[in-house]
Amino acid sequence: MSNHTFSNLTLMTEIECRDRISNDEIPLELSIEKWERIKQWLETFGLTNVGQLKVKAITFDDYSSKTCALCHTYTQWITSQYIGEDEKDCENCPVTITTGMEGCENTPFNKFEYAVESNNTKEAIKLADEFVKILKSCRSDNE
Q1: 5 vs 8, 36, 53, 86, 121, CA distance in Å?
Q2: Average pLDDT, rounded, for the chain
Q3: What is the pLDDT of residues 98-129, one digit of tens each?
């Protein structure tokens, strides 16, 4: 069974996320890419037939803060644990600025987690798409 790859389709890993941040890629753009890749992964493999396709099932780490460039950049508990930078919180995160809520509250994130846990591929795809739209709206809100 392959780890995260099937053909050219991959999910963002924590190492990739951290490496790309350290190469000065824009965290918001990385987060948009991450969620677009998640959506494409779900459209290609779904949540329930990954065993037959011999690909890795999507897990919490694939869509959690561990692979979120914004969390790595703006949150204290991620940056202090994984990157070792000064303490930070969600206050300056583009998602917080756009939604007015910290921790991705008031976004499709928590509903997405439930859809994945419930093996509801159609709902997970819809929510991933909604999250991409919120992230893209952060571009104009923060320019």
Answers
A1: 7, 15, 11, 34, 19
A2: 82
A3: 988 888 888 999 899 999 988 899 999 999 99
3-state SS assignment for residue 6: strand
- pTM (global) more than 0.90: no
Count the neighbouring beta carbons within 10 Å of the beta carbon of residue 61. 12
C-alpha closest to that of 69 among 59, 53, 58, 83: 83
Short-list 66, 19, 12, CA closest to 35: 12
Counting the structural domains of the chain, the total is 1
Q: 6-22 pLDDT, tens per residue?
A: 446 789 999 999 999 99
For 9, the domain range is 5-141
Q: Give one DSSP letter per residue of 80-124, joined into a string.
A: IIII------GGG-HHHHHHS-STTTTSTHHHHHHHHHTT-HHHH
Q: What is the pLDDT of residue 136?
A: 95
> Which residue reads 């939604």 in tokens?
99
